[in-house]
What we know:
This protein has about 190 residues and is mainly α. It has a domain at about 5-50 and about 105-190. Helices cover about 90% and strands about 0% of the residues. The chain is built from 7 helices and no strands. The chain has helices at about 5-25, 25-45, 45-75, 80-100, 105-130, 140-155, 160-190. It is globular, with a radius of gyration of 21 Å. InterPro entries: Acid_resist_chaperone_HdeD, DUF308_memb. This is HdeD family acid-resistance protein.
Amino acid sequence: MKITDSISTELKQAHLKMLDYLQKHWRIFLIEGVVFMLLGIASIVIPHVSSVVIVLFLGWIIVFAGLMHAGRAIFFSDMPGFGLWLALGILQIVVGYLLLANPIAGVMTLTMMMALFFAFEGIIKIYLAFMIRPLPQWHFILVSGVIAFVFAVIILAFWSETAHWLLGLFLGINMVILGWSMIQMSLDHKDNQ
């Protein structure tokens, strides 16, 4: 059997599994799509606030994760890699604290990281769209991927002038587009039960 035949067979099996999953669980995709759209609209309406909220939320998550790593390392001090786990925990606590202490600088940093995220997300969505291409509405995922990649290019081109609000705005637009595509896919597969 050729490698291309094997890949084709695997893609066909993945397609059938995805189709079955979408038909059985279309309501989950619908609810998720509506939630993404609502969050996206809120982020678009108040991008400055949503940018700072994102940084503060992330800061607390990183501090909490750091406390967990450091606490586990201290509690299990005889564990292999103790120093590395403790260093990781301390690093996470420091980075989280820096985000919490200066959220505006965190917004600037996260905006740059968001450009990388959108670039990778766009590439992955485009790949997934072509992977599920025979499914109805696959082009919504493709459009979402192309837009995410374009966002990455725009962020990198205008980063210094717009970083304080662009993160919230683009994240909101991205969530609205993702939500819309999930709603469309779920409603299309609702009828195919």
